[in-house]
Design brief:
Blueprint lengths: L8 E5 L12 H14 L8 E5 H11 L3 H14 L4 H5 L4 H16 L1 E7 L5 E7 L3 E6 L5 E6 L5 H4 L7 H9 L5 H12 L6 E6 H8 L9 H19 L2 E9 L7 E10 L2 H12 L23 E3 L17 E3 L1
Parallel strand pairs: 1-11
Antiparallel strand pairs: 1-3, 2-6, 2-10, 3-4, 5-6, 7-9, 8-9
Helix pairs in contact: 8-10
Family: Belongs to the initiator RepB protein family.
InterPro entries: Initiator_Rep_WH1, WH-like_DNA-bd_sf, WH_DNA-bd_sf
Organism: Azospirillum thiophilum
Protein backbone atom coordinates (compact mmCIF):
# COMPACT_ATOMS: atom_id res chain seq x y z
CA UNK A 1 0.00 0.00 0.00
CA UNK A 2 1.42 3.44 -0.87
CA UNK A 3 2.34 5.80 1.94
CA UNK A 4 -0.01 8.66 2.72
CA UNK A 5 1.30 12.19 2.31
CA UNK A 6 0.15 14.66 4.92
CA UNK A 7 0.60 18.37 5.52
CA UNK A 8 3.58 20.34 6.67
CA UNK A 9 3.75 20.20 10.46
CA UNK A 10 3.16 23.59 12.10
CA UNK A 11 4.48 23.22 15.66
CA UNK A 12 3.92 25.46 18.64
CA UNK A 13 7.30 26.33 20.19
CA UNK A 14 8.44 28.12 23.34
CA UNK A 15 11.40 30.49 23.29
CA UNK A 16 14.33 29.43 25.51
CA UNK A 17 14.14 30.87 29.00
CA UNK A 18 10.46 31.75 28.75
CA UNK A 19 7.65 29.89 30.58
CA UNK A 20 5.38 27.64 28.55
CA UNK A 21 1.81 29.02 28.66
CA UNK A 22 0.52 25.70 27.37
CA UNK A 23 -1.39 24.90 24.17
CA UNK A 24 -4.26 27.04 22.95
CA UNK A 25 -7.66 26.12 24.32
CA UNK A 26 -10.34 24.77 21.98
CA UNK A 27 -12.06 28.18 22.09
CA UNK A 28 -8.86 30.04 21.18
CA UNK A 29 -8.30 27.66 18.28
CA UNK A 30 -11.88 28.22 17.11
CA UNK A 31 -11.36 31.98 17.23
CA UNK A 32 -8.19 31.66 15.15
CA UNK A 33 -10.03 29.47 12.63
CA UNK A 34 -12.82 32.07 12.44
CA UNK A 35 -10.32 34.87 11.78
CA UNK A 36 -8.77 32.78 9.01
CA UNK A 37 -12.18 32.00 7.50
CA UNK A 38 -13.13 35.68 7.36
CA UNK A 39 -9.80 36.67 5.80
CA UNK A 40 -9.50 33.63 3.54
CA UNK A 41 -10.97 35.00 0.26
CA UNK A 42 -8.16 37.62 0.09
CA UNK A 43 -5.55 35.98 2.28
CA UNK A 44 -2.73 36.33 -0.27
CA UNK A 45 -3.67 39.76 -1.64
CA UNK A 46 -4.53 41.66 1.53
CA UNK A 47 -2.15 42.45 4.35
CA UNK A 48 -4.49 43.91 6.98
CA UNK A 49 -8.00 42.50 7.42
CA UNK A 50 -10.65 44.73 8.99
CA UNK A 51 -13.96 43.56 10.48
CA UNK A 52 -16.46 44.97 12.94
CA UNK A 53 -17.37 42.92 15.97
CA UNK A 54 -20.96 42.77 14.71
CA UNK A 55 -19.77 41.28 11.41
CA UNK A 56 -17.72 38.62 13.18
CA UNK A 57 -20.60 37.80 15.49
CA UNK A 58 -22.91 37.33 12.50
CA UNK A 59 -20.32 35.14 10.78
CA UNK A 60 -19.99 32.96 13.85
CA UNK A 61 -23.74 32.71 14.43
CA UNK A 62 -24.95 32.17 10.87
CA UNK A 63 -22.22 31.58 8.33
CA UNK A 64 -20.88 28.39 9.91
CA UNK A 65 -24.30 26.98 10.78
CA UNK A 66 -27.64 26.38 9.11
CA UNK A 67 -29.75 29.41 10.21
CA UNK A 68 -32.85 27.55 11.48
CA UNK A 69 -30.75 25.12 13.48
CA UNK A 70 -28.54 27.93 14.75
CA UNK A 71 -31.59 29.86 15.94
CA UNK A 72 -32.91 26.79 17.75
CA UNK A 73 -29.55 26.30 19.44
CA UNK A 74 -29.47 29.98 20.44
CA UNK A 75 -32.99 29.76 21.87
CA UNK A 76 -32.07 26.64 23.85
CA UNK A 77 -28.95 28.34 25.20
CA UNK A 78 -30.88 31.46 26.19
CA UNK A 79 -33.45 29.34 28.00
CA UNK A 80 -30.95 27.72 30.35
CA UNK A 81 -28.48 30.62 30.58
CA UNK A 82 -25.60 28.83 28.87
CA UNK A 83 -23.84 29.41 25.58
CA UNK A 84 -20.75 28.51 23.61
CA UNK A 85 -17.68 30.31 25.06
CA UNK A 86 -16.87 31.92 21.71
CA UNK A 87 -20.42 33.25 21.44
CA UNK A 88 -20.06 34.80 24.90
CA UNK A 89 -16.78 36.46 23.94
CA UNK A 90 -18.30 37.92 20.77
CA UNK A 91 -21.41 39.24 22.53
CA UNK A 92 -20.07 42.77 23.12
CA UNK A 93 -19.76 44.78 26.32
CA UNK A 94 -16.92 45.16 28.82
CA UNK A 95 -16.55 41.45 29.55
CA UNK A 96 -16.36 40.74 25.83
CA UNK A 97 -13.73 43.47 25.37
CA UNK A 98 -11.54 42.02 28.13
CA UNK A 99 -11.84 38.50 26.75
CA UNK A 100 -11.07 39.78 23.27
CA UNK A 101 -7.85 41.34 24.47
CA UNK A 102 -6.82 38.19 26.35
CA UNK A 103 -7.51 35.97 23.35
CA UNK A 104 -5.66 38.21 20.92
CA UNK A 105 -2.71 38.37 23.33
CA UNK A 106 -2.44 34.58 23.03
CA UNK A 107 -2.57 34.66 19.24
CA UNK A 108 -0.01 37.48 19.08
CA UNK A 109 2.45 35.71 21.37
CA UNK A 110 2.05 32.06 20.34
CA UNK A 111 5.11 31.16 18.28
CA UNK A 112 4.98 28.40 15.67
CA UNK A 113 7.61 26.91 13.37
CA UNK A 114 7.57 24.60 10.36
CA UNK A 115 9.95 23.04 7.86
CA UNK A 116 10.10 24.45 4.35
CA UNK A 117 11.73 23.29 1.13
CA UNK A 118 12.88 25.41 -1.79
CA UNK A 119 12.12 24.59 -5.41
CA UNK A 120 15.63 23.13 -5.66
CA UNK A 121 14.86 20.79 -2.75
CA UNK A 122 17.06 22.55 -0.20
CA UNK A 123 15.63 22.36 3.33
CA UNK A 124 14.94 25.26 5.63
CA UNK A 125 12.62 26.37 8.40
CA UNK A 126 10.39 29.31 9.23
CA UNK A 127 8.93 30.82 12.40
CA UNK A 128 6.06 33.18 13.03
CA UNK A 129 3.50 34.13 15.62
CA UNK A 130 -0.07 33.10 14.80
CA UNK A 131 -0.97 36.75 14.25
CA UNK A 132 1.60 39.32 13.16
CA UNK A 133 -0.32 42.32 14.53
CA UNK A 134 -3.76 43.55 15.47
CA UNK A 135 -5.60 46.62 16.72
CA UNK A 136 -8.99 47.10 18.36
CA UNK A 137 -10.74 50.47 18.35
CA UNK A 138 -14.23 51.83 18.85
CA UNK A 139 -15.79 52.86 15.54
CA UNK A 140 -18.00 55.83 14.71
CA UNK A 141 -21.15 53.79 15.35
CA UNK A 142 -19.89 52.58 18.74
CA UNK A 143 -19.08 49.06 17.54
CA UNK A 144 -15.56 47.69 17.93
CA UNK A 145 -13.40 47.55 14.81
CA UNK A 146 -10.67 44.92 14.74
CA UNK A 147 -7.77 44.93 12.30
CA UNK A 148 -5.39 41.99 12.13
CA UNK A 149 -2.62 40.65 9.92
CA UNK A 150 -0.89 37.32 9.31
CA UNK A 151 2.86 37.07 8.78
CA UNK A 152 3.88 36.86 5.08
CA UNK A 153 5.60 33.49 5.56
CA UNK A 154 2.51 32.00 7.21
CA UNK A 155 -0.02 33.05 4.58
CA UNK A 156 0.76 30.30 2.02
CA UNK A 157 0.05 27.67 4.68
CA UNK A 158 -3.16 29.38 5.77
CA UNK A 159 -4.20 29.75 2.13
CA UNK A 160 -4.27 25.98 1.56
CA UNK A 161 -7.79 25.39 0.15
CA UNK A 162 -7.89 21.82 1.48
CA UNK A 163 -8.08 23.13 5.05
CA UNK A 164 -11.06 25.46 4.90
CA UNK A 165 -14.07 24.00 3.12
CA UNK A 166 -17.44 24.94 4.61
CA UNK A 167 -17.98 21.49 6.13
CA UNK A 168 -14.53 21.46 7.73
CA UNK A 169 -15.10 24.85 9.28
CA UNK A 170 -18.34 23.58 10.80
CA UNK A 171 -16.54 20.53 12.13
CA UNK A 172 -13.80 22.63 13.78
CA UNK A 173 -16.37 24.90 15.39
CA UNK A 174 -18.28 21.88 16.77
CA UNK A 175 -15.36 20.57 18.83
CA UNK A 176 -15.08 21.28 22.54
CA UNK A 177 -12.00 19.09 23.07
CA UNK A 178 -8.63 20.78 22.55
CA UNK A 179 -7.20 17.42 21.54
CA UNK A 180 -9.85 16.81 18.85
CA UNK A 181 -8.82 19.80 16.73
CA UNK A 182 -5.22 18.77 15.88
CA UNK A 183 -6.29 15.13 15.54
CA UNK A 184 -8.95 16.08 12.99
CA UNK A 185 -6.63 18.39 11.03
CA UNK A 186 -4.06 15.60 10.79
CA UNK A 187 -6.51 12.86 9.83
CA UNK A 188 -8.50 14.83 7.26
CA UNK A 189 -5.42 15.01 5.00
CA UNK A 190 -5.40 11.23 4.76
CA UNK A 191 -9.18 11.10 4.43
CA UNK A 192 -8.90 13.17 1.23
CA UNK A 193 -7.11 10.35 -0.55
CA UNK A 194 -8.93 8.09 -2.98
CA UNK A 195 -7.67 4.88 -1.39
CA UNK A 196 -9.74 4.42 1.77
CA UNK A 197 -9.83 2.93 4.33
CA UNK A 198 -6.29 4.08 5.11
CA UNK A 199 -3.93 2.69 7.73
CA UNK A 200 -1.22 4.77 9.33
CA UNK A 201 1.18 3.86 12.14
CA UNK A 202 2.75 6.25 14.66
CA UNK A 203 4.65 5.89 17.90
CA UNK A 204 3.09 6.90 21.20
CA UNK A 205 5.64 9.72 21.39
CA UNK A 206 4.49 11.12 18.07
CA UNK A 207 0.87 10.77 19.17
CA UNK A 208 1.58 12.86 22.27
CA UNK A 209 3.28 15.42 20.03
CA UNK A 210 0.30 15.50 17.66
CA UNK A 211 -2.19 16.06 20.49
CA UNK A 212 0.18 18.62 22.06
CA UNK A 213 -0.06 16.95 25.45
CA UNK A 214 1.65 19.11 28.07
CA UNK A 215 5.01 17.54 29.04
CA UNK A 216 4.88 15.71 32.36
CA UNK A 217 1.12 15.06 32.18
CA UNK A 218 -0.86 11.97 31.15
CA UNK A 219 2.32 9.93 31.50
CA UNK A 220 0.95 6.41 31.17
CA UNK A 221 -1.05 5.01 28.28
CA UNK A 222 -4.24 4.50 30.32
CA UNK A 223 -4.35 8.21 31.27
CA UNK A 224 -3.49 9.36 27.74
CA UNK A 225 -6.19 7.16 26.24
CA UNK A 226 -8.90 7.97 28.80
CA UNK A 227 -8.41 11.72 29.12
CA UNK A 228 -7.13 12.78 25.69
CA UNK A 229 -7.26 10.21 22.91
CA UNK A 230 -10.68 8.57 23.31
CA UNK A 231 -12.61 11.84 23.94
CA UNK A 232 -10.93 13.38 20.88
CA UNK A 233 -11.78 10.39 18.68
CA UNK A 234 -15.37 10.43 19.94
CA UNK A 235 -15.79 14.05 18.83
CA UNK A 236 -14.00 13.56 15.49
CA UNK A 237 -16.23 10.60 14.65
CA UNK A 238 -19.36 12.45 15.78
CA UNK A 239 -18.82 15.56 13.67
CA UNK A 240 -16.35 14.88 10.83
CA UNK A 241 -16.69 13.46 7.33
CA UNK A 242 -14.71 10.32 8.21
CA UNK A 243 -14.37 7.82 11.06
CA UNK A 244 -11.22 7.09 13.05
CA UNK A 245 -10.35 3.84 14.77
CA UNK A 246 -7.09 2.50 16.16
CA UNK A 247 -5.38 -0.55 17.58
CA UNK A 248 -2.30 -0.63 19.78
CA UNK A 249 0.98 -2.48 19.34
CA UNK A 250 2.87 -3.61 22.44
CA UNK A 251 6.30 -5.14 22.86
CA UNK A 252 6.21 -8.94 22.84
CA UNK A 253 6.80 -9.52 26.54
CA UNK A 254 3.72 -9.81 28.72
CA UNK A 255 2.51 -6.57 30.30
CA UNK A 256 4.76 -4.47 28.05
CA UNK A 257 3.79 -0.82 27.45
CA UNK A 258 2.12 0.36 24.26
CA UNK A 259 4.73 1.29 21.66
CA UNK A 260 2.72 2.22 18.57
CA UNK A 261 -0.78 3.10 17.46
CA UNK A 262 -2.14 1.88 14.11
CA UNK A 263 -4.83 4.19 12.77
CA UNK A 264 -7.61 3.28 10.37
CA UNK A 265 -9.27 6.20 8.59
CA UNK A 266 -12.55 5.38 6.86
CA UNK A 267 -14.82 7.65 4.84
CA UNK A 268 -18.43 7.97 6.03
CA UNK A 269 -21.29 6.79 3.81
CA UNK A 270 -23.15 9.31 1.66
CA UNK A 271 -26.18 9.07 3.96
CA UNK A 272 -24.04 9.74 7.02
CA UNK A 273 -22.42 12.75 5.33
CA UNK A 274 -25.84 14.21 4.49
CA UNK A 275 -26.94 13.85 8.11
CA UNK A 276 -23.61 15.27 9.26
CA UNK A 277 -24.22 18.55 7.41
CA UNK A 278 -27.14 19.21 9.74
CA UNK A 279 -25.64 17.61 12.82
CA UNK A 280 -22.62 19.93 12.86
CA UNK A 281 -24.88 22.95 12.43
CA UNK A 282 -27.30 21.93 15.18
CA UNK A 283 -24.61 20.55 17.45
CA UNK A 284 -24.91 19.92 21.16
CA UNK A 285 -23.93 22.57 23.65
CA UNK A 286 -20.42 22.10 25.11
CA UNK A 287 -21.61 20.57 28.39
CA UNK A 288 -23.44 17.82 26.44
CA UNK A 289 -20.96 17.34 23.59
CA UNK A 290 -19.39 13.91 23.15
CA UNK A 291 -15.94 13.66 24.64
CA UNK A 292 -16.05 17.04 26.37
CA UNK A 293 -12.53 18.36 26.90
CA UNK A 294 -10.68 17.53 30.09
CA UNK A 295 -8.36 20.45 29.41
CA UNK A 296 -9.81 23.72 30.74
CA UNK A 297 -10.97 25.99 27.91
CA UNK A 298 -10.62 29.75 28.05
CA UNK A 299 -13.14 32.21 26.66
CA UNK A 300 -12.55 33.84 23.24
CA UNK A 301 -12.69 37.23 21.64
CA UNK A 302 -14.05 39.37 18.78
CA UNK A 303 -12.83 40.79 15.53
CA UNK A 304 -14.23 42.82 12.55
CA UNK A 305 -15.31 43.87 8.51
CA UNK A 306 -13.36 44.53 5.14
CA UNK A 307 -9.77 44.76 3.81
CA UNK A 308 -6.95 47.04 2.59
CA UNK A 309 -3.25 46.66 1.70
CA UNK A 310 -1.78 44.39 -0.92
CA UNK A 311 0.93 41.86 -0.26
CA UNK A 312 3.02 40.24 -2.97
CA UNK A 313 4.68 37.52 -0.92
CA UNK A 314 5.24 34.38 -2.99
CA UNK A 315 4.06 31.00 -1.69
CA UNK A 316 6.71 29.04 0.15
CA UNK A 317 7.46 25.70 -1.50
CA UNK A 318 6.57 22.93 0.93
CA UNK A 319 7.71 19.31 0.96
CA UNK A 320 4.82 17.12 2.18
CA UNK A 321 5.38 15.53 5.57
CA UNK A 322 4.07 12.17 6.76
CA UNK A 323 2.98 13.71 10.03
CA UNK A 324 1.05 16.80 9.05
CA UNK A 325 -1.18 19.22 10.92
CA UNK A 326 -1.33 22.28 13.15
CA UNK A 327 -0.32 21.60 16.76
CA UNK A 328 -1.17 24.74 18.70
Amino acid sequence: MPKAVGATVVRRVVEPGKPDPGPLSATEQQLYTLLIALAYPRIMETEVHTFTLAHIRRAWTYRMRIPDSAQRAADDAAADGTDNPLSVALAGGHRSYDRLRTMFDRLLTTLVEWDMWGEDGRPGWAKSTLLASCSVQEGADGDLVVKYAFAPHLRPLIGDPALYSNLRLRVLFAFTSSYAIPLYEWAQRFADRRTLPWRETMTVGRLRELLDVTPGTLKDWAQLRRRALDPAIQQVNAYSEFDLDYEVIRAKERGAPVEEVVWQIKRKSRESLYALTYKTADRQKPKDAPGASTRPAKSPAPSAATTNKNNTSAPVAQRPSQFGGWKL
